[in-house]
Amino acid sequence: MPDLSQIVKAYDVRGVVPDQWDEPLAELFGAAFARVTGAEAIVVGHDMRPSSPGLSRAFGRGAAALGADVTEIGLCSTDQLYFASGQLNLPGAMFTASHNPAQYNGIKMCRAGATPVGQDTGLAEIRALVEEWSGSGAPAPAGTPGTITQRDVLADYAACLRGLVDLTGIRPLKAVVDAGNGMGGHTVPTVLDGLPVELVPMYFELDGTFPNHEANPLAPENIVDLQARVRELGADIGLAFDGDADRCFVVDERGEPVSPSAVTALVAARELAKHGGGTVIHNCITSWSVPEVVRENGGTPVRTRVGHSFIKGEMARTGAIFGGEHSAHYYFRDFWNADTGMLAALHVLAALGGQPGTLSELVAQYDRYAASGEINSRVEDQAGRAAAVRAAYAGRPGTELDELDGLTVTTADWWFNLRASNTEPLLRLNVEARDRATADKIRDEVLAIVRA
């Protein structure tokens, strides 16, 4: 019996292939997905990992055996799969492990309209069926098996994004794009084709072994090549995508990273102008600048926990037009509330190319405070150290504490958030202040307690 507790996470399936899961297990997941969703038809896509095509096909076979018609869209980014789920109004499954090492793979599942499937919305039932069938095998189909057909949706996906952000009238831009050998190398050329953007590709060869660097642009060491190339060429902007290209990270013309909070604020201002106001979701570790910019542009900011299920849940509840996270995930009502790094990148390109200044000058209005970035501390007693931090700041004059997501401590001049990792013995600290000296002081104060 496979140990599904090791691979079925809160929002997806993820593990080492073939040690923790393989094609026969993927076939059972496909059958269970068809049973739980009750779908007559589904759509399936996969990334460039060596194990992805086989796992994807096995999943499709399992779903078809239970009567679901399967549309295979083949190589795609995760947001391209969300597009297919939304456009075709079908439940979908994406085979990817995002930025994890090559030996990993996983499944991100959604219901029709790209509505996410997580533990509370079907994943627990899927796991239970797979566990049951692992011993006895999937039930024999009661009726006619479903069909399996192939369909290419890349051009339609690109047309959808280009219809949401008009770049045809911008000034010519030079953009260096680092795909990290991930799915950005597949999607970016088609999306930008024919636009006034000179594309300088880096690591566009699809290679799930990630020969150049890990496809996680939030880690500083993974964007050094991009930064150097932007400076060397005098480019206007640099863009880096993660392995499944649902996240996008931006560097300016100096090769300096642009905070995802600044990107969130910039895109929020554009979406608010487009929709004439509305609600914007942001998580509890985005910059103070995000709710400020939202209010300044006639919108209503709503703060939520970190994580796509919380963002998407709040977007559905409030009818929000946009949501952004400090992890460089960006969510759009016009894109079925799903996250798409490519659409956020188009917004940044449109904003940059719609005015004469540099990107650093443009984002300065959205990057207003000094931030620490996320600092991880390995501690065995997460709860105990977090409690010690809470005790140190509780009751201080002018200090507010909340526990929406971990511990957030706020004053008029600074705030910090301390959260426990769900998967590792880590405490994650984010600090922001009105000036660098204060940010550094609070950072050092909190870390002294955490690491005592």
UniProtKB/TrEMBL annotation:
GO terms for molecular function: intramolecular phosphotransferase activity; metal ion binding. It holds the Pfam family PGM_PMM_I. The keyword Secreted does not apply. Gene3D superfamilies: Alpha-D-Glucose-1,6-Bisphosphate, subunit A, domain 3 (3.40.120.10), Alpha-D-phosphohexomutase, C-terminal domain (3.30.310.50). Residues 6-132, 156-255, 265-369 form the Alpha-D-phosphohexomutase alpha/beta/alpha domain. InterPro entries: A-D-PHexomutase_a/b/a-I (IPR005844), A-D-PHexomutase_a/b/a-I/II/III (IPR016055), A-D-PHexomutase_a/b/a-II (IPR005845), A-D-PHexomutase_a/b/a-III (IPR005846), A-D-PHexomutase_C (IPR005843), A-D-PHexomutase_C_sf (IPR036900), Alpha-D-phosphohexomutase_SF (IPR005841). Its cofactor is Mg(2+). One of its GO terms (biological process) is carbohydrate metabolic process. It comes from the Bacteria. The keyword Ligase does not apply. Keywords: Isomerase, Magnesium, Metal-binding, Phosphoprotein. Residues 374-447 form the Alpha-D-phosphohexomutase C-terminal domain. Belongs to the phosphohexose mutase family. This is Phosphomannomutase/phosphoglucomutase.
